[in-house]
Amino acid sequence: MLKIRVIPALLLQDNGLVKTVQFQNPTYVGDPINAVRIFNTKEVDELILLDIVATQAKKNFSLKLISQIAEECFMPLTFGGGVRSLDDIKQLLNTGVEKVSINSAAIHNPSFIQQAAETFGSQSIIVSIDVKRHPQGMYEIFSEGGSRPAGIDPVEFSKQMEECGAGEIFLNSIDRDGTMTGYDLELIQKVSSSVSIPVIACGGAGRLEDFAKVAKEGGAAAAAAGSFFVFHGRRRAVLISFPTKKELEELFESNPGSVHSQTKPSS
Predict the structure, then answer these.
(1) Per-residue confidence band for 2, with pLDDT thresholds at 50, 70 and 90
(2) pLDDT tens for residues 27-76?
(3) pLDDT of residue 261
(4) What span, in angstroms and rounded, lies between the C-alpha atoms of 36 and 12?
(5) Residue environment code for 124-158, b if the CB has 16+ CB neighbours within 10 A, otherwise e
(6) What whole-number distance in Å separates Cα of residue 148 and Cα of residue 126?
(7) Amino acid 43: pLDDT
(8) CB-CB contact of 36 with 78 (8 Å)
């Protein structure tokens, strides 16, 4: 049966959760502790938390807040944003975070990933890659929260990160972020077919069947989404939701082309 992990991806700005569109114009969507408690009740299997201030402003993340979130979180938690040293990773894992996502530091110093994997184990290290598509069709990685072009091809970089010992690739389409228009299946397929480690696809989920499509057509091992789980209706009212286990089972038992179009999971 076709099945992938479905993961809420939350953006942290200072002490609140926000959601962006193409990495721009963050909109406040709620308190992180409250959101985690809601996802606990919905029996979410995994959660990703990304600190966009620590990423973009090169500030330190708040260990106190992360510890509070991890303490409330009943499911495995991944944290990313501003991770630049082995000590950063050690402190995060000590809070109860299970996996650490590394973005700009991997681009600037690929050997850091090798050091991290050797020190903490590949299962704890995720490399996050933010990608834009140029009008000519070429893909390019951007660093510093999607603000700076890195001049690097995502496929070649993903291969390099696998060789360095990364346990997973978190692949985020900047163009699709917050648009709810569907994943960039071409990008995801290019990367997932080039590596043997799991690829977590993010950016663009707008309906349940997108999760099935990103697995079948993109080859992703997991599907992450933000807006899909926090906005409801055309006016994008904030309402945290997640599919029931039954909805996901029915989704993955069906052919993606025949899955009932459902714009929101049960709230």
Answers:
(1) low
(2) 999 999 999 999 999 999 999 999 998 876 667 889 999 999 999 999 99
(3) 36
(4) 12
(5) bbbbbbbbbbeeeeebbbbbbbbeeebebebbebb
(6) 21
(7) 92
(8) no
pLDDT(112) > 80: yes
Return the CATH number of the domain spanning residue range 5-258.
Answer: 3.20.20.70
Task: Tell me if 178 sits within 8 A of 21, measured CB to CB.
Answer: yes
Between the alpha carbon of residue 21 and those of residues 25, 135, 227, the distances in Å are: 7, 19, 9
* Residue given tokens 């690739």 in the structure block: 169
pTM as predicted: 0.93
- Hey, where are the domains in the chain? 5-258
Asked whether 143 and 107 are in contact (CB, 8 A), the reply is yes
Bridge pairing between strands 77-80 and 99-102: parallel
Q: Which residues are catalytic?
A: 130
The encoded tokens of residue 64 equal 């106190």
Q: What's the CA gap between 169 and 126, in Å, rounded?
A: 6
